[in-house]
Amino acid sequence: MRNIGGINRIVLVIVDKDVEYIDLFRIYLRESDLGDKFIIKAFSQKSMLERYLKTNRDIDILLIDPELVPDERLITGIDVIILLEELDHLNEESAFPTILKYQPLNQLISRIFSIYLENHDKAKKKFLGKKRTTVLSVYSALGGSGKTTLAVNLVKTLTTIEKNVFYLNLEYLGSTEFLFSSKRSNDFAKLLYYLKTNQEQLVSKIEALKKYDLNLKVDYFEHFSYPEEIQEMSKNDIEILIDALVNIGNYDYIIIDLDSSLNERIIGSMNKSNYVLWLLLDDIIGLQKTTILLNQLKNTFNSEYQDFYRKISFILNKFLGQDTKNDITDFGFQLNGYLPYIPDWKTITDGQQLTNQKAYSDQVLNLIKALI
């Protein structure tokens, strides 16, 4: 590790026979959010690496093709050695951690950083970012009110103005794979395991398990393979997870897509949120359910309810631009914004369809400016 200009940087040496691969890796890492945390050295020949190692031992990470690993005496003292393997040669019994060579570079770099942090617990504080993170939850008492549509448009709007965003879907039946061309996996289950058993390694596991969507330019977790698993999350679990995402310091915003229910993970998320965007519809049933849920939350937060209530911004969704059929003020709700009804969303066939309506995205931007 080297200190340059008062900044601690990880010295990473990559060794591979494929010069083009090395160049792509170096360019991507330098331009990534983690770029300022690394000093990169690269070699494509074993002999050149060995010559370097004879005079330079200040190496934190050696990322290397297994066929180019030098004599053990030359690599003794290197903090972390990671084997860069191709899928058909993957050796899970290796003495060193292995990583797939051909995978999206953002995932590769996150995995490298994760392995390093797992082995250097003290380094976490030095290499966490310094961004001030705003946590914003999207909620409604009524299913089908447009929570996910608003959440994903918040993501799109914020990343368009070059904000770093993490999207966290906490719905029982999430739409992550539809929105991000992703898949269900057991990654969130792994994260839940560390939440409950090994919180010290949580930051490194977040780095390893998060995914990145190139279209929306957002980090996220793939949803549970089995929806029942998300029910295991306690209020304490979700609060620890949100704190960890905040403490990483790399995100300007965390957007949480909540379920239309009231359980421990929802209450924990609201508790940790700076803002709660609560969607309303011009619908008597939804308005009555909102009143009931607010009374439940009043009992839950007790003396802290007023502080919690100040976080809420009531947004009327699917607004037709005219007077509402129901007098919303009769229910005690002060509206903080409106989102238009979009006829094209009657039938959805593609996730990108939800983020291509200028009338809607303009109102989302106005909400961000007004409320945040």
Structural commentary:
- This protein is of the alpha/beta class.
- The chain has 14 helices and 14 strands.
- Helix 6 (147-160) crosses helix 14 (358-371).
Topology order in helix (H) and strand (E) letters: EEHEHEHEEHHEHEHHHEEHEHEHHEEH
Helical fraction: 25-40%
- Kindly name the structural category: alpha/beta
Averaged pLDDT, please? 85
Q: What is the terminal separation in angstroms?
A: 38 Å
Strand order of the largest sheet: 9-10-8-11-7-12-13-14
The profile of the biggest β sheet is: 8 strands, mixed
Secondary structure tally, helices: 14
- What proportion of the residues form beta strands (DSSP E)? 15-25%
DSSP strand count: 14
Note poorly predicted spans: none
Cα-atom Rg, whole angstroms? 24 Å
**Any idea what the shape is?**
elongated
Task: Record keyword descriptors for this entry.
372 residues; alpha/beta; eight-stranded mixed beta sheet; 14 helices
Walk me through the topology.
Blueprint: E1 2-4, E2 7-15, H1 19-31, E3 38-43, H2 46-53, E4 61-64, H3 72-75, E5 80-85, E6 98-100, H4 105-119, H5 123-127, E7 134-140, H6 147-160, E8 165-169, H7 176-180, H8 187-197, H9 202-209, E9 211-213, E10 218-220, H10 235-248, E11 253-257, H11 264-272, E12 275-280, H12 284-301, H13 305-309, E13 312-319, E14 335-340, H14 358-371
Parallel strand pairs: 2-3, 2-4, 4-5, 5-6, 7-11, 7-12, 8-10, 8-11, 12-13, 13-14
Antiparallel strand pairs: 1-2, 9-10
Helix pairs in contact: 4-9, 6-14, 8-9, 10-11
